[in-house]
From TrEMBL:
<dbReference type="Pfam" id="PF04564">
    <property type="entry name" value="U-box"/>
</dbReference>
<dbReference type="InterPro" id="IPR003613">
    <property type="entry name" value="Ubox_domain"/>
</dbReference>
<dbReference type="InterPro" id="IPR016024">
    <property type="entry name" value="ARM-type_fold"/>
</dbReference>
<feature type="domain" description="U-box">
    <location>
        <begin position="41"/>
        <end position="120"/>
    </location>
</feature>
<keyword id="KW-0808">Transferase</keyword>
<dbReference type="InterPro" id="IPR013083">
    <property type="entry name" value="Znf_RING/FYVE/PHD"/>
</dbReference>
<dbReference type="InterPro" id="IPR052608">
    <property type="entry name" value="U-box_domain_protein"/>
</dbReference>
<dbReference type="InterPro" id="IPR000225">
    <property type="entry name" value="Armadillo"/>
</dbReference>
<comment type="pathway">
    <text>Protein modification; protein ubiquitination.</text>
</comment>
<dbReference type="GO" id="GO:0061630">
    <property type="term" value="F:ubiquitin protein ligase activity"/>
</dbReference>
<dbReference type="InterPro" id="IPR011989">
    <property type="entry name" value="ARM-like"/>
</dbReference>
<protein>
    <recommendedName>
        <fullName>RING-type E3 ubiquitin transferase</fullName>
        <ecNumber>2.3.2.27</ecNumber>
    </recommendedName>
</protein>
<dbReference type="GO" id="GO:0016567">
    <property type="term" value="P:protein ubiquitination"/>
</dbReference>
<dbReference type="InterPro" id="IPR045210">
    <property type="entry name" value="RING-Ubox_PUB"/>
</dbReference>
C-alpha cells in the first residue's frame, strides 16, 4: 500500500474511533465522565481500543487483539461497505477471518470489577443525596444512577435495594430547577419496566408532587413529569392513585387536546389517559372533563354490570351541548333500548341520562330518530301493576317536555300501530287528564309539553281543538293560581299560546272565575326585574278581545291599568332594567293600556282615567320607538280611538245671544273675538283633556310612521290621521294641518303604492277628503299617478271604496260632475 493509501486509512480509522467513542459514552468525548464512574483504577485491558470504554462483551480477533463486540462488528461492516478487505483497526493488517472469540475470563473479571465499583458508587450516591450536598454533587450522583439503570435491569434492583428511590423522589421538592428536572428524568428511567420501583415512587404524596409539575411554567419539567406519569400508569395498581389526585385527569385531558404543546408531550398525555382507563372512576373523571369516549366505549362494549355503571355515571354528568350531540349520536339508540327493555334499575339510569341529553334541541332530535317517543308516552299513560314509579314518571315527563321543545314535526311521528301522534285528539285528552290527576312536578312537565306543541303553527290547531273538545279550558286556567312558580308559569305560557285561537273562551273564563285574573295581575305587578312569566302573563291579557267591555271593567276593578301604566313609565325612565323579555313585556303593557281607548264612548270614569294617565301623550311618545313595530302600531290605533273623542270633549265657547238694543245700535252687537281655539275641533283643546292630536304634536309623529316598512304600522298611523278629516270637524283645517306637517305626499304615495287593500281603502278615503280643498285638488290634478291609482280603486275596489273614488275623481275632473253613476245599494 502506498504512503498516501496508509494516510487515508489512518484518517478513516480516526474518524471511526471518534464516532464510536461518542456513540458509546452517550456523547461524552472526554475521559473525565468515564473516570468519574469508577473508584477502583481502570485497567487498560478493560478498555476497548475503539470506544475507550470499559467493555461489556469483550471478544478477540484472529491476531489476538481484544475489542467490544459491537464496536469490532461495526468496524468490519465499515470495511465491507467501503469495498476494503477487513483489517485490524490497531495494526491495519488484513485479516483472513472475521470470526470473533468471546473473552469469557476477561468479561467475568470486568463484571466483578464493575459490581465493586457500582456498589461503592451507589453508597457514595446514597450519602450524597441524604446529606444535602452541593448541586454539582447531587447532579453527578443522579447522572450516575441514570447511567447504571440504563445499562441493566439488575442495576434498577440495586438502586431499589439501596433505598435510593425515596431519596431521589425527595429531590422533586428541591428549590433547584436543574435538580428537580434531573430527578424527574432519573425516576422515569428507574420506573421503566420495574413495578417495585414504581410502587416506591408512588408512595406518600409523590404522585401529587409529580402532578403539580404538569402545570409548571417550564416546559421541560412538564414533559418529564408526563413521561414519568406515563411509566407509572402502566402499573394497573397505581391507576386509581393517579386518578385520585385532584386535578390530575383534568390537566392530562387538557394536555392531550392541546394544539400548542410539544407533540411528544401530547402523545404521552394521551397514552397516560389510555392507561388510566383501566379504573372506572378515572373513566368517570375523564367524562366529567370532556373526554367521553372511554365511558361510551364501556357503555357499548362492557359487561352488563359495567354498562349499567356507565349509564348511571352518564346521568350524573353535566354535559356541554356539543357533547350531548356526540353522546346522542354514539349511544342514543343503546340508551333508548335500555330504557325500553332493561330492569327497573337500568331503566331509571337510562332515563336519567336521556333526561340530560334531551335538554338540547339537536340531541333531542337525534333521540326522536332513535325511537324515544313511543316508550316515553307508554310509560306516562300506563297505570296499574306495570306502571313506573312516580319518580320515573316525572323523569319521563321531563324528557318528553325536552323533546317537544326541539320543534320536530310531531304530526308525522307515529307512537303506535294505529299511527297516532302526540297531537292526536285522544293522546292530548290523555295528557290533559294526567295533568289534572297527578302531582305538581309532573303537572309542570306535561304543561310544558303542551307549551311546546302549541308553540308551533302546525300543531297548535290540533291542541286547541282537543282542549275545546275535552272542556279543559277552566281546569287549565286554574293552574294560574298554583303555588308552584314553575307550574304557574307553564300554565300562563300555554294560555298565551292558545289565546289567539280561543281568546273569547279565555276571556269568558277569566271574567267568570275566581282569582285567576287577580293572580295574573299580581304576576305582572312583581318588581323583581322582568321575567318570562311576567311577559307571558301580560301577553295573555293583551291577546284577549278589546271589544269585551266586561273584561275591561274587571281589569279596571283589579287595578290592572294602573299597574300597566306604572310599568311602562318605569321602563321608559330606565328604572326597570331591560332584559331578554323587556320587549315582549312592554308590547303587552301597551296593548293592555290600549283597551281603555276602546270603551271611552259615554264612560266618564274611563275618560277621567285616560286624562289622569295622560294616555294621549304617552301613546304619542311611544310612536317614536322605531324598532318596536307592535308598540308603534298599538299606539297609533290608541291615538285614533282617543282622537275620535276630541270632537266631543273639546270645549266649544258659548257665544251670548245679542240683546234687544243691539238691533237698535248695531255697533253694540259686534261678537267678541275668541282666541286659542283648535282649528280642527273649533273649541278649546289639549292633549291631556280632549286628546287632540294637533295640540299634542302627534300629527308629525304619525306622518313619520307613514313611511314605515311594516304595513300594519302604516295602516294604524293613517287611521289616526284620518280622524282629522272626520265629519263633525273642520275638514278644510284638517287638510291644512296635514299639509303643514308634510303629510299629503305620504298619503298620496300610499295610494299610488297600493301595498294592501286596507291601505288602499283608507288612502282613497283620505285623498277624497284632501281633494275637497280646491288648491290642493288643482295641484294634484296634474299628477297622472294619483289619477291612475284612483281609477284603479274606482274599477277594482269594493262598493264603498268605488263610491269614494268616484267623488275623488270628480274633484280632479277625471269624471263628469253628475250623479247617478252608482245607485244606492239595494235602491
Amino acid at each position: 500500500m502506498s504512503r498516501q493509501g496508509h494516510r487515508i486509512v489512518r484518517q478513516i480509522i480516526e474518524r471511526f474511533l471518534e464516532e464510536m467513542a461518542e456513540s458509546w459514552d452517550g456523547g461524552h468525548s472526554d475521559d473525565s465522565f468515564r473516570d468519574s464512574l469508577y473508584t477502583e483504577p481502570i485497567y487498560e485491558a478493560f478498555l476497548c481500543p475503539l470506544t475507550r470504554q470499559v467493555m461489556r462483551d469483550p471478544v478477540s480477533i484472529e491476531n489476538g487483539q481484544t475489542f467490544e463486540r459491537d464496536a469490532i462488528e461495526k468496524w468490519f461492516k465499515e470495511c465491507r461497505d467501503s469495498g476494503r478487505r477487513p483489517t485490524c483497526p490497531l495494526t491495519q493488517k488484513e485479516l483472513k477471518s472475521t470470526d470473533l472469540n468471546p473473552s469469557i475470563a476477561l468479561r467475568n473479571t470486568i463484571e466483578e470489577w464493575t459490581k465493586r465499583n457500582e456498589a461503592v458508587q451507589l453508597d457514595k450516591a446514597c450519602r450524597t443525596l441524604s446529606l444535602g450536598n452541593s448541586e454539582i454533587d447531587v447532579l453527578q450522583s443522579l447522572n450516575y444512577i441514570t447511567h447504571i439503570c440504563q445499562k441493566s435491569r439488575y442495576n434498577k434492583h440495586a438502586v431499589h435495594n439501596a433505598e435510593l428511590v425515596p431519596m431521589i423522589s425527595s429531590m422533586l421538592k428541591s428549590s433547584n430547577r436543574k435538580v428537580r428536572l434531573k430527578a424527574l428524568e432519573t425516576l422515569c428511567i428507574i420506573a421503566e419496566g420495574d413495578d417495585d420501583n414504581k410502587e416506591v415512587i408512588a408512595a406518600g404524596d409523590n404522585i401529587r408532587t409529580i402532578v403539580k409539575f404538569l402545570s409548571h411554567e417550564h416546559s421541560q419539567e412538564r414533559e418529564e413529569a408526563v413521561s414519568l406519569l406515563y411509566e407509572l400508569s402502566k402499573s394497573e395498581s397505581l391507576c386509581e392513585k393517579i386518578g385520585g389526585v385532584s386535578g390530575a385527569i383534568l390537566i392530562l385531558v387538557g394536555m392531550a387536546s392541546s394544539k400548542s404543546a410539544n407533540i411528544l408531550t401530547v402523545e404521552r398525555a394521551d397514552k397516560t389517559l389510555e392507561n388510566l382507563e383501566k379504573c372506572e372512576n378515572n373513566v368517570r373523571q375523564m367524562a366529567e372533563n370532556g373526554r367521553l369516549q372511554p365511558l361510551l366505549t364501556l357503555l357499548l362494549k362492557g359487561s352488563p354490570e359495567t354498562r349499567l355503571s356507565m349509564v348511571s355515571y352518564l346521568g350524573d354528568l353535566v354535559l356541554s351541548n356539543d357533547v350531548k350531540v356526540f353522546v346522542a349520536q354514539t349511544a342514543g339508540s343503546v340508551l333508548v333500548d335500555v330504557m325500553k327493555s332493561g330492569s327497573n334499575l337500568a331503566r331509571e339510569a337510562a332515563l336519567k341520562s336521556l333526561n340530560q341529553i334531551s335538554s338540547y334541541e339537536t340531541s333531542a332530535k337525534i333521540l326522536i330518530h332513535a325511537g324515544i317517543l313511543p316508550p316515553l308516552v307508554k310509560y306516562l299513560f300506563t297505570v296499574g301493576v306495570n306502571q313506573l314509579p312516580m319518580r320515573m314518571k316525572e323523569v319521563s315527563a321531563t324528557i318528553l317536555a325536552n323533546v317537544v321543545s326541539s320543534g320536530a314535526n310531531f304530526e308525522s311521528i307515529p307512537l303506535d300501530q294505529d299511527r297516532r301522534t302526540l297531537v292526536s285528539e285522544d293522546i292530548v285528552h290523555n295528557l290533559l287528564h294526567l295533568i289534572n290527576n297527578t302531582g305538581p312536578a309532573i303537572e309542570c312537565k306535561l304543561l310544558q309539553v303542551l307549551v311546546g306543541l302549541t308553540s308551533s303553527a302546525t300543531t297548535v290547531v290540533n291542541i286547541v281543538a282537543a282542549i275545546k273538545s275535552s272542556g279543559a279550558t277552566i281546569s287549565l286556567i286554574q293552574f294560574v293560581e298554583a303555588p308552584q312558580k314553575d307550574v304557574r308559569m307553564a300554565s300562563i305560557k300555554l294560555l298565551q299560546n292558545i289565546s289567539p285561537y280561543m281568546c273569547q273562551e279565555l276571556a269568558d273564563a277569566l271574567r267568570s272565575t275566581g282569582g285567576q285574573l287577580s293572580s295574573l295581575i299580581n304576576v305582572i305587578a312583581e318588581d323583581n326585574g322582568i321575567s318570562e312569566e311576567q311577559a307571558a302573563a301580560i301577553g295573555l291579557l293583551a291577546d284577549l278581545p278589546e271589544s269585551d267591555t266586561g273584561l275591561t271593567r274587571r281589569l279596571l276593578e283589579e287595578g290592572a291599568f294602573k299597574i300597566a301604566f306604572s310599568k311602562v313609565i318605569s321602563i321608559r325612565q330606565g328604572i326597570t332594567r331591560g332584559g331578554r323579555f323587556v320587549t315582549r313585556f312592554l308590547e303587552g303593557l301597551v296593548r293592555v293600556l290600549s283597551r281603555l281607548t276602546y270603551i271611552l264612548e259615554g264612560e266618564p270614569e274611563v275618560i277621567a282615567l285616560a286624562r289622569e294617565y295622560s294616555l294621549a301623550s304617552l301613546f304619542t311618545d311611544l310612536l317614536q320607538m322605531n324598532e318596536l313595530d307592535k308598540v308603534q302600531r298599538v299606539s297609533a290605533l290608541s291615538l285614533q280611538n282617543l282622537s275620535k273623542q276630541s270632537k266631543h270633549l273639546t270645549q266649544v265657547p258659548v257665544v251670548p245671544e245679542p240683546r234687544f238694543f243691539c238691533s237698535i245700535f248695531p255697533c253694540l252687537g259686534k261678537q267678541p273675538v275668541i282666541t286659542g281655539l283648535c282649528r280642527v275641533h273649533r273649541g278649546f283643546c289639549s292633549i291631556k283633556h280632549s286628546f287632540c292630536l294637533l295640540e299634542g304634536k302627534a300629527v308629525e309623529k304619525l306622518v313619520a310612521c307613514l313611511d314605515h316598512t311594516n304595513e300594519k304600522v302604516v295602516e294604524a298611523a293613517l287611521a289616526a290621521l284620518c280622524t282629522l278629516l272626520d265629519d263633525d270637524v273642520d275638514i278644510d283645517q284638517g287638510v291644512s294641518v296635514l299639509d303643514e306637517a308634510d303629510g299629503i305626499k305620504p298619503i298620496l304615495d300610499i295610494l299610488r303604492d297600493n301595498r294592501t287593500e286596507i291601505l288602499r281603502q283608507k288612502a282613497v278615503w283620505a285623498v277624497e277628503r284632501i281633494l275637497r280643498n280646491d288648491d290642493i285638488a288643482n295641484e294634484i290634478a296634474g299628477d297622472q299617478n294619483v289619477g291612475t291609482a284612483l281609477v284603479e280603486a274606482f274599477r277594482h275596489g269594493d262598493y264603498r271604496t268605488r263610491q269614494i273614488a268616484e267623488r275623488a275623481l270628480k274633484h280632479v275632473d277625471k269624471l263628469p260632475n253628475f250623479s247617478g253613476i252608482f245607485t244606492k245599494k239595494g235602491g
